[in-house]
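If you are new to this repository, start here. Below is one unmodified record pulled from the training split, so you can see the exact layout before writing a loader.
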Amino acid sequence: MFKAVIKADVMKSLVNVVSPITDEVKLTVKPEGVNLVAVDPSHVCMIELVLDKGTFESYEANETEMGIDLDKIKSILKLSSSGEVIAVNQDEERKKLIFKIGNITRHMSLVDTSTMSTPKIPTLNLTSYVEIYASELQKGIKASDNISDHVTFIADKNSFELLCEGDTDSASLRLDDSSISISVDKKIHSMFPLDYLGLMIKALPPDAMLKLELDTDFPVRMTFSLVDGNARVTYLLAPRIES
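And here is the target side for that same chain:
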């Protein structure tokens, strides 16, 4: 059983952060909330999303699993306006979700979860981190467009830099400890694919405070929260190892 009401704007923001990784997800539903773990088809990046009950305007659920097609959710969201709420009910017998938005009712078939695995989240001992607003990284990603297919994160105890270098052009975003929070005890240098990183960073609300956990040639773990801390997102992105 799953029955919930959620603001349309909140659902849109949640879909936005998951859809750069995958277009189908398996939701693990429990009385206390919902979570998902998914990887992209190339196994380069991963997302974990945890939704507490407070993410929703109202929420009732028993333990269950639901397979969701995010493209269908996006089409349903187009029926809503800013400020509206969406009521969602599970039809267990017909294996559907029923969405009600104003006077519109939409039935959506669930995806069979029998062949959908739950990826294991790797254990990473990343002791260095930088906290930065998403809007700053979005500027750095935008400045890197059409220069190269990768960017480099460089951090030390006083500064953080996003560097993109191509054959003829370059761009960088550099911030020091007067404007961001930094906890780094050694110089860190890691390269990441710009296409994956760009899709993830562009999906974030500009005012999201993003924590980047780093080490040289290790995956970067990026965490942030939404809906007043009731929704928590963790991205993992594999590094591009330099030869």
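Two things worth knowing about this chain: The two ends are 52 Å apart (CA to CA). The chain is about 15% helix and 45% strand.
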